[in-house]
Amino acid sequence: MYETLTYSGGVHKSEEIRELIDDLGGFILQENILQMDLILNMAIPIDDVDKIKEKSKELLGKISIAPMAGCEIAIVSPTLARHHLPHAACDISEYLRRFGAKDNMIGLARGAGKGTAGITEYEKRLIEEHDIAIYALGSFKQCIIDKTFLFDDIDIPVIVTGAPEIDINDLPGADEYVSGLGRIPRRLKRGENIRALRKLVEVVEKTLDKKRKDMALDPPLAPSILVKNAIENQVPAISEIISPTPVTSQLDGVRVKLDYDKYNEEIANVMINDKHLAEIADIKRSQMYNYILVKLLSESAII
C-alpha cells in the first residue's frame, strides 16, 4: 500500500529527498520547479511515511497528504467562450492542483444555451479517458437540469457544479452535485467561494475513494505508479518530452505523451516484472494530441 504525499520546499539539496524516495521503493508522480521552490508529488510505502517527514523537516520543507495524486481529472465547461470558461472552471482547476490532482480543461464545442447545447462522440471519448469528470455549469437551476444530456451517458464518475441548490435525483447521470460554484465573473476568493471549493475537494476525494474500493474488488496485476516508473526507465524518448508530467498517472493506467504511431510498439514491449505491458494492459490511441493511453486490465479480464 502506498500513501500519496506532496513535498513543498526549496530546490537546494532536493536531490536528497529524491534519493530517499528511490531508496524506500517509492515513486515520484509529478515534479514542478517554480524559481527556487520545488513541489513534488510522490507515492511512498505507507510504513515509510515517517522517514519522508523526517527528511522534509531536515530540509526545512513541508509534507502534506495529497489524496488526489496519481489521478487525472477532466474539468468540463459548456464552451470555450469567455462567459463560460475562464473564471469558476479555472479556479476549480487551480484549487484541485493544491491537493495533488492532475487536471485538464475541456471546453465543449457547442454547449452554450439550452437550445443549442451539445456534446460529440469525440468529446465523450476524450472525457472518458480520465478518472472522473467535473462539469462546471451555470447559475440557473432549470438550465442545469435541461443540460443533463451532456453527461447522462458518460462512463466515469461525474461531479456537477453550479450556483443553486439542486437535488441529485434531478440530475440523471451525475454522481454528486456541489452548489455555490456557478458562472461567476471574477476570481473565487470570497469566503463563500472558498467554502464551496473545499466542499468540492471533499466530494472529489470521496468519489475517488469509492472508485479505488471498486477497483480493489478486481484489481489490475500492477499498480499504475509501477507502470509509470517502468515506462520512464525503459523508454529513452520520455526524457526528451518538454511537456509537464510526460507520463501521467491515472487510477487504472497512464497517459504517455508520445506519438502513438511512432512509439506504441515500444510502449507495448515495456517489461513489468516478467510480462510485456501489452499482456496486462490495452495500449490505445488517445483522443488527446494522438498520445498513448495505457489502460490496465483487471485480473478477471486477463483470466
UniProtKB/TrEMBL annotation:
One Pfam family linked to the record: MCR_C
Name recorded for this polypeptide: Uncharacterized protein
Organism: bioreactor metagenome
